[in-house]
Amino acid sequence: YVALNESRNALACLMGIPSSARNASATLLLARLLEASGNHRAAASAHKEVLRGTPIVLESAIALAQLGTPVREIFAIQPLLAHLPWLVQLLHAHSAEGLHDATRAHEAFGALGAHFEGSTHVLLHTARAALFRGHDDEALALFQRARDADGNLVDGMDVFARGLAKADRGAELGRLCRELLFIDRRRPEPWGAVATYWTMRGEHARALEHCERALSIDERHPFAHQLKGSLLASLARPEQAVYAYRKANAIRADLDSFIGLVNAYLHIEKCREALSVAREAVQLMPNSARAHALLGSALCAQPNAQDKTKRAFAKALALDPQCEEAVMAAVNLNAAERNYQGAIELLQPLLRKQRRDAIHSKLGDMHALKHDFTQALAHYHHALALNASLKSATDGLERVEGMIRAVQQGDERDDALHDAVANGLHDDESGGTSPPFYH
């Protein structure tokens, strides 16, 4: 039944075996199936049963940490585990991951990586934590190191594919898809990667077909549901996108699913629902700067919520001064108040991070609004040198050239110049797949 992807039948068979008659392998399989079905409490009980009888089953210890069981309780169940310092650190890292504390998880997995440099498990989880924090360049490097360590690695490669697409590294993404399909076509990750490739090419209908194929292999693969939601939103089917994102979140709560839900609700003008989802994200991930930035984005659509919006973005920046979503939103707020120098000062530190093309483009916008056309042109050209297809930079360059011509013709009205750039501030550089607050 498991091989046929008939999880319900497999679960029914295992549940029919008395607990006293189940061996460790059967109980571990039961725990996996219960966890996959979303019955986390029963899954935790099964994992505890495994751990009591078989202390060397680290999978159960890790699963318990990720399901929210306190590490001290895991050691109380199986005291032998507490005598291995590296395992103590590993369980604390997974506990932080399960609690959606990406900063603590990132630091803990990073420390483990210094001792276990070739561990694909540690590399993949460090990469996921880095992605959650918005450290895209670091995450991509870690995913690549994991692939270098194991050429047949499939786990997490659809997430890696999304990162490559976001970084506009199409040639690498194409190679990754070919290699994954050669390794194992019976896993959902290769088809998710292929769907991401066609999404990057702008062929959303074709991408959706491959996404459905991934789900036909594993209907509970959260990334495939996330990607399906993004594709449905791109195909102007936001109501269906909401369902896909909710399915992804039901399987495993994830910030990207919350972001997709908020965007889909805002698209169909369900602002109250968008705000409710954003608040749920903050409640689940109180230490996430990106979650607070998402709340700020949802508050932007609410009437008379400007002060609350500013507080949400301020909280995000206090948690992480380089949270790109929060910085970009704060930049737009500063631009609306014509505090262009303040916006520039917020953007400058981001040049040391990822997506430098988008940062240069936004800096070009701010310098244009300051009437510093020389700097504006320099930043737009720099952005296009990094990414020749970046629409925001191309549009910005055209606007500034038009503004320069207007100045030369004597039309230097401040309002006209401000509106010319401000009207283009919220253009979507990525073709509509990123959240609106991202820019």
From TrEMBL:
Alphabetically ordered keywords of this record: TPR repeat
InterPro entries assigned: TPR-like_helical_dom_sf, TPR_rpt
Gene3D superfamilies reported in the protein's UniProt record: Tetratricopeptide repeat domain
UniProt key word Cell cycle: no
Keyword Nucleotidyltransferase attached: no
Cellular component GO terms held in the UniProt record: anaphase-promoting complex
GO BP, sorted A to Z: cell division; positive regulation of mitotic metaphase/anaphase transition; protein ubiquitination
Official protein name in the record: Anaphase-promoting complex subunit 7
Organism of this sequence: Diacronema lutheri (Unicellular marine alga)
Classification of source organism: Eukaryota, Haptista, Haptophyta, Pavlovophyceae, Pavlovales
